[in-house]
């Protein structure tokens, strides 16, 4: 069957219950997909199985349902897709884009001469002097000295030189787990995702994901990064520390708060149910009204 014109997704990590910041991202991606008559998928991003909490997935899916967000198809899990990631890595290796590396974080910190937004930039030690055959090693990609520009639907054009800002980054960890950057690129391609709407904490992951897509021969989805929700101390809400689980006792009020955070207009009359909220909200979704997260734009 032909692919739909719009296929979006919400991809939470099962490390804790849904919090308000995650709800904001889910509301944005759901509204954007449904306003375009598109599909909306749910993917459980449990590629890092060490951090996974067994109770988190049902909690997250239950919350989405209570907030009236129904998904198309069956949710998939990254932990069930290792073969796809291995094939993508093999493709990068055959192209000469990936190499083995057994440098520890301490070694990178000690040998790096430059820092970027994510810390010390890897100096390419193992690209020059690879580890012995058979030795335990991660896999890095050899990034180009070139600017990657992405036109974000919320933030506008963003440009990043991968080598200057990041250096060669890990796509498979030394413990055998596929790194997020490669897994998400493979998942979006395999699921036919055409539009990615997510939190602005991933804005600067996008250039490297676009580069990986190009190297693997994948299409580029359209991207939109919505503003994060911050705690009173200025930190980003996170499931890792069980911060601020979303309030499900008054779902319409909580949805309305997420809607306002996304810069959307409020209803002129009282809405009494979740289904009534979405019937009202979907045709009134305007992504051009979503505010830019200026803190993340200038990271």
Word description of this protein:
Helix 3 (82-94) crosses helix 7 and helix 7 (180-190) packs across helix 8. It is built from eleven helices and twelve strands. The longest helix is centred in the N-terminal third of the chain and has 16 residues, at 20-35. A hairpin with a 3-residue loop joins strand 8 (147-152) and strand 9. The chain is an alpha/beta fold and 299 residues long. The model has no long low-confidence stretch (mean pLDDT 92). It has helices spanning 20-35, 56-66, 82-94, 105-111, 125-128, 162-165, 180-190, 206-216, 251-261, 274-281, 294-297; strands spanning 7-10, 39-44, 76-77, 98-101, 115-116, 119-120, 138-141, 147-152, 156-161, 170-172, 195-199, 222-226.
Features:
3-stranded antiparallel β-sheet; 3-stranded parallel β-sheet; Rossmann fold; alpha/beta; 12 strands; 299 residues; single chain; elongated
